[in-house]
Amino acid sequence: MSASATAIFSPACGLWACGRAAHFHQRIVVYPIGRGTQRGRLLTNWVCQKSAAGPAPEREDWNRQTSNQQVLAQFGNWCFPWLDMPALIEQTPQIYEFPLVDRDPVATWTSGRVTLIGDAAHPMHPIGSQAGSQAILDARTLTSVLHGTTDPIAALLRYDCERRPRMNDITLRNRRFGPEAALQLVEERAPNGFARIEDVVLRHELDAISSSFSEAAGLDVETVNARPPFVTVAR
Ligand SMILES: Cc1cc2nc3c(=O)[nH]c(=O)nc-3n(C[C@H](O)[C@H](O)[C@H](O)COP(=O)(O)OP(=O)(O)OC[C@H]3O[C@@H](n4cnc5c(N)ncnc54)[C@H](O)[C@@H]3O)c2cc1C
Predict the structure, then answer these.
(1) Domain end: 67, 98, 129, which one?
(2) Ligand 1 binding pocket includes 49 (Cβ within 6 Å)
(3) Rounded to two decimals, what is the model's pTM?
């Protein structure tokens, strides 16, 4: 289950960074999205996520409000030198909870002249901050295959062949925490905390996890820079 909300917040020590702290069963994601109402305060979005026992709720509802106390009961001790999460939760006017659910990959997205893109094609866990970007890459590929063709049915099948295997792979990787597996690795090696991250995990281990995911997702710098334009814009 996840709880998420937006609050005006004073960063604990005047220094702000986007925050992500976690392991496989519990995590937070916190990031500023704008100026606050007063100097020194920031409009802050946050998500707290926790594995829950039992079946997922029947209704995948994003609009179910939860209480600050319920979230504090799970995350009340998540206090860091750089972020006072309990204070952030307490100052949040409205918090919503929702189940984190995905769907098993499917064998085709295309049926005749109809196809799927985005979350309709590959609903996945929100790992790696990239599912929305993948919807844009779907649209890019779709534009490419349809551009200048007289056979849209063949074009939609080409789009399906190009995008679906990659997105099926990413959907399954996200069940294993995708690029955020680095957080789980640190949790396993240093369950009681650490003074220096270098003592727990080596730089090349982090790089290997990150680049394996971004290459699979087609989002690594080399792949993105090497892509030729699909459509030439007339000037
Ligand atoms: C907690 C969380 C955090 C995320 N963080 C990131 C991130 O940092 N970066 C990132 O890239 N992605 C992120 N994502 C994923 C991203 O939000 C989705 O992948 C993206 O919104 C999918 O876009 P879409 O257009 O396919 O679907 P949607 O955004 O769901 O759009 C579908 C639209 O269709 C409408 N609709 C539904 N049924 C009908 C109907 N019958 N008639 C008319 N309209 C209809 C819906 O109201 C909706 O507006 C996150 C997702 C979650 C849940």
Answers:
(1) 98
(2) no
(3) 0.80
In a shared domain, residues 82 and 30: yes
Residues 6+ apart with CB under 8 A from 6: 33, 43, 44, 45, 46, 92
Q: What is the mean pLDDT of each run of 10 residues along the chain (235 residues)?
A: 58 43 78 87 89 76 88 92 90 90 94 97 88 93 91 97 95 86 87 89 90 85 84 71
CA of 119 to the centre of ligand 1 (A): 6
Residue 126 near ligand 1, beta carbon < 6 Å: yes
What is the C-alpha separation between 82 and 16, in angstroms, rounded?
7
Q: What residues make up the domain containing 217?
A: 118-226
**What residue owns the CA closest to ligand 1's atom 5?**
129
| 94 lies in the same domain as 133 | no
